[in-house]
Amino acid sequence: MSLVDAVISTGGSAVDDVVDRDSEKADEQAVEEFAGWVFDRFLGAMETLSIHIGSDFGLYDALRGAPATAAELAARTGIDRRYAREWLEQQATAGILDVDVERGGDGVGPGFRLPAAQAEVLTDRASLGYSAPLADMFAAVALRMPDLTDAYRSGRGIPWSAFGAAVRDAQGDINRPWFENVLAKALASVPRVHDVLSRPDAGIADVACGHGWSTIGLARAYPDAIVDGFDIDAPAIEAAHEHAAGLENVTFSELRGEQLADEGHDRYDAAFVFEALHDMPDPVAVLSSIRRAVRSDGVVVVMDEAVAETFSPPGDATERAMYGYSLLICLPDSMSTPDSVATGTVMRHATLERYAIEAGFSAVSILPIDGFAAFRFYLLER
């Protein structure tokens, strides 16, 4: 049908549509700026995958304190020499590596050096700045895009186990330095919590402990306590056992949070849920079980994402990151369970308080713990 025919058959509405579309034409500068914004994200994604290559093959570890040419890096790590040269050049172009021209004595190009700051961020697993696991997680999630596409169409989910060891390990590795280096000081700064944890033979439950670094951090901070870590992911519990080798006041078991009270009412002085409640399909049932398992004079603490109080776009970096996690990992994981409440990563204070009140708590208060990565600590009041 021609435009003239369309005008005749619609009483002129086709012309009106053309005029309306023309009047909505975007400002050229705004288009150019947003196109640049998209390109910056594309560039960041490509370079994130290049960091994953360096992390996965141990290339950064091989360069730490030992500059190398492409031939030397290939020999140290067992990767192909031509790929080694391309990766080294790309890393230098991205500003990650420095070029050491004087080391180019093997006839195939210069040497490359990993600066100290980059070395800490990409190789030091004890540093609070350690960030290589973010790239590893991004790469692992990218492999699940066909599954995510199916989930978005069908309304089904993708269970945590389906994301594989790479995501599980990355999650544990990125939180490890915070639990090992900062958790003890953070909890000690809150007398109401610290005093309970310092009781002789205090019983502490760490629900959804993952790789167990939070459980280990609690056990080391409070050596007179008995700390039990629980998770439903068998490989995570196995890893937790390995990480806690030699630590005598820790146990790990496979157990759902909803089953904690089945182990005994008033059994614990304290219970924690570190960055996991938003993933749970039935958080009210979990919190209800925790409330019954913890003594009335004990404490229940939930650490979750430090998102804004309300949905108020555009968001800050934390808000944006958490929505990214939610789209790609946490919401699909939660929706893999039938009848899930499907919270998603962005669990706001009001949502947590609603869950807590439905579980029998009276209120939720924010603990005065600041600067603990992108997390916030909540105390669930009796």
TrEMBL record:
<dbReference type="InterPro" id="IPR036390">
    <property type="entry name" value="WH_DNA-bd_sf"/>
</dbReference>
<feature type="domain" description="S-adenosylmethionine-dependent methyltransferase Rv2258c-like winged HTH">
    <location>
        <begin position="47"/>
        <end position="123"/>
    </location>
</feature>
<feature type="domain" description="Methyltransferase">
    <location>
        <begin position="205"/>
        <end position="308"/>
    </location>
</feature>
<dbReference type="InterPro" id="IPR048711">
    <property type="entry name" value="WHD_Rv2258c"/>
</dbReference>
<dbReference type="InterPro" id="IPR029063">
    <property type="entry name" value="SAM-dependent_MTases_sf"/>
</dbReference>
<dbReference type="InterPro" id="IPR053173">
    <property type="entry name" value="SAM-binding_MTase"/>
</dbReference>
<dbReference type="InterPro" id="IPR025714">
    <property type="entry name" value="Methyltranfer_dom"/>
</dbReference>
<dbReference type="Pfam" id="PF21320">
    <property type="entry name" value="WHD_Rv2258c"/>
</dbReference>
<protein>
    <recommendedName>
        <fullName>Methyltransferase domain-containing protein</fullName>
    </recommendedName>
</protein>
<dbReference type="Pfam" id="PF13847">
    <property type="entry name" value="Methyltransf_31"/>
</dbReference>
<dbReference type="InterPro" id="IPR036388">
    <property type="entry name" value="WH-like_DNA-bd_sf"/>
</dbReference>
